[in-house]
Amino acid sequence: MQQEDFRELWQRFGELIHANRALLNELDAAIGDADHGSNMDRGLAKAVEVLNAAPEGSLRADAKAIGMTLMSTVGGASGALWGSGMLKFAAALPDAPEVSWADFVGAIGAFVEALAQRGKAVVGDKTMMDVFLPALAELQAKGSDGEPVSSLVVALAHQARAWSDATLDVVAKRGRAAYLGERSVGHIDPGSVSAALWFEALARVMGPQ
Amino acid sequence: MKKIIDAVETIVDQALDGMVVAYPEYLVRVPDTSVLARKVPKVTGKVGLVSGGGSGHEPAHGGYVGYGMLDAAVAGEVFTSPTPDQVYAGIKAADHGAGVLLVVKNYTGDVMNFDIARELADADAIATEVVLVNDDVAVQDSLYTTGRRGIAGTVLVHKIAGAAAEEGADLATVKAIGEEVVANVASMGFALTSCTVPANGKPTFELGENEIEMGVGIHGEPGIERMPMMGAGELTAFLYSRLVEELGLDAGERVAALVNSMGATPGIELAIMAGHLAKLAEGSQLSLERVLMGEFMTSLEMAGASLTLLRLDDTRARRLGAACDTPALRVVKH
Fold first, then answer.
1. Which candidate from A38, A173, A179 shows the least CB-CB separation from B144?
2. CA of B278, closest CA in chain A: separation in Å?
3. Which of A192, B113, B261, B327 is most buried per CB count within 10 Å?
4. How close are the terminal C-alpha atoms of chain B, in Å?
5. Does the beta-carbon distance from B109 to A25 stay under 8 Å?
6. Residue B152, CB half-sphere, CA atoms under 13 Å: how many?
């Protein structure tokens, strides 16, 4: 993956979050406090601005800048998770303007591991991990199959959406929605939607052109 | 949405400046941060107290900065926990060389952001400890959930741990005293109307004319149950009995209470609740020694109230009654 693809990934992710901002707020209103879309939108707008102003030459430096920006602008659990996750993502990358797909998947692995440590959520807790954990497993499995990246990311984006949709019928065990217990059933977790949008952005950048 | 704001993006920044305008004798804003710190010079050797959380809970948290309570308060966006860099700025502002106690309400975002801030403080060799407040008995606490939320009872943690810090207790002791308050405090609230988060622009939930949301949280997040509206006596009794049961209060024990408006409920209605509370306490032979009444931990313009009970012993009673001087809470020794 080249640096321009990586920057485009975050640009696209920011656009998708912005376009879905009201939906994310609405989903959050049902089981949380109605601001997930606004918070992510604020952070990603800033992150894209920071990336555009950053010197070129290092994906790792880009990822670190994204992590710091998200952590210090999003707030809430989302900022802490996306932010500290991206710092680990950065640390796992070689300091280069281009990284291999294997390096990129390795960095996603470090990102997900950071989320797991900080948030302590597992699949079925009705959080962003309901998307990230199976997606990572899929990426790791398919990477060794030699499946072309362009078709892999498109399939993954569709699956990510399905994993997010599947949070509908689940009782939340982590995050703000967990305080609702059974009343969280019947609502899709907004954090899982953001996670699915990230894979959608990845598919738009790395998918068939 | 009809609110006295200029732009959604500048709400917190403007509000923090406004707090300093209104309380210049108490507060300074740490430049380029969302931290309000004590105006009076630092007292070397005193444990610093830092609290914070999303904005929209005024007077929490900046209102409790001052003698006998907090050294710094960190504000996040509306209903969003502050970011680690801001919390860390609060820790630095509150550090008087004896370490800093963080009073954190049990929400995933707050816990994580304060946690990352502690990692930053570690790197600078500032000792920190945390008291996690989880007084909301409306929420089930189990191994499989995030646990109970922290709500208005947090103010009593600020007060009592703050008094201990003024007495000169060390960090471990102030933490232990804070945790003792948490173990003996319970709260529950209800909403008559929803609030509107400015960034969202519409009410977080809808309530019918004769409905209330029981067990609601302080972020407008839904409560445990929709119930039909009741009279003030019935409402107070409902909350009171849950709290007494939860704390296992027996006849003869001493308690303090907090009757807290969620934002839109006026003092006249709180006073009616306080009156009922006194009768209920008398009926169950509890000695109700102190009632704090007003806006302590609000939820924007939500109508509704919460009730907090704190089991008292001699030291908690003394520290609750100790002098404090902050914008939102003043206790004067006679």
1. A173
2. 30
3. B113
4. 46
5. no
6. 32
The token pair at A22 is: 């009201």
Reported ipTM: the value is 0.91
Cα–Cα–Cα angle for A63, A79, B191, nearest 5°?
165
Indicate yes or no: pTM above 0.80. Answer: yes
- State whether residue A72 sits within 8 Å of chain B by CB: yes
Distances (CA, A) of B37 to A59, B16, B77, B330: 39, 11, 18, 17
Q: How far is CA B244 from CA A21, A54, B256, B289, in A?
A: 43, 58, 12, 15
User: Are the beta carbons of B199 and A29 separated by less than 8 Å?
Assistant: no
Choose the closest CB to B197 out of A33, A84, A178.
A33
Rg of chain A over CA atoms, in angstroms? 16
Q: Measured between beta carbons, which residues in chain B are less than 8 angstroms from residue A84?
A: 116
Is B321 in the A-facing interface, judged by CB distances under 8 Å?
Answer: no
B315 and chain A in contact, CB less than 8 A: no
Catalytic site includes residue B57:
yes
Do B81 and A72 make contact, defined as CB atoms within 8 angstroms?
Answer: no
Per CB-CB distance under 8 Å, the chain B contacts of A185 are none
Following DSSP, what letter does each residue of B315-334 receive, concatenated?
HHHHHHHS-EE-SS-EE---
Q: Mutation target for A interface from B8, B10, B83: give the one with most A CBs within 10 A.
A: B83
Question: Along the 209 residues of chain A, how does pLDDT read in single tens digits?
Answer: 999 999 999 999 999 999 999 999 999 988 887 889 999 999 999 999 999 999 999 999 999 999 999 999 999 999 999 999 999 999 999 999 999 999 999 999 999 999 999 999 999 999 999 999 999 999 999 876 778 999 999 999 999 999 999 999 999 998 888 888 888 899 999 999 999 999 999 999 999 97
Q: Which residue type does B16 have?
A: L
Q: CB neighbours (10 Å) of residue B334?
A: 2
Dig out the tokens for A143 from the structure.
């990477």
DSSP string, B19-82: HHHH-TTTEEEPTTSSEEEESSPP-TTPPEEEEEEEESSTTTTGGGBSBTSBSEEEEEEETSPP
The Cα–Cα gap between B76 and B312 comes to 32
Amino acid at B181: V
Q: Which residues contact A143 (CB under 8 A, 6 or more apart)?
A: A101, A102, A105
Q: Which of A32, A72, A76 sits opposite B85 (nearest CB)?
A: A72
CA nearest neighbour of B68 among B151, B182, B161: B161
Residue B187, both tokens? 């709260």
Please name the amino acid found at residue A36: H
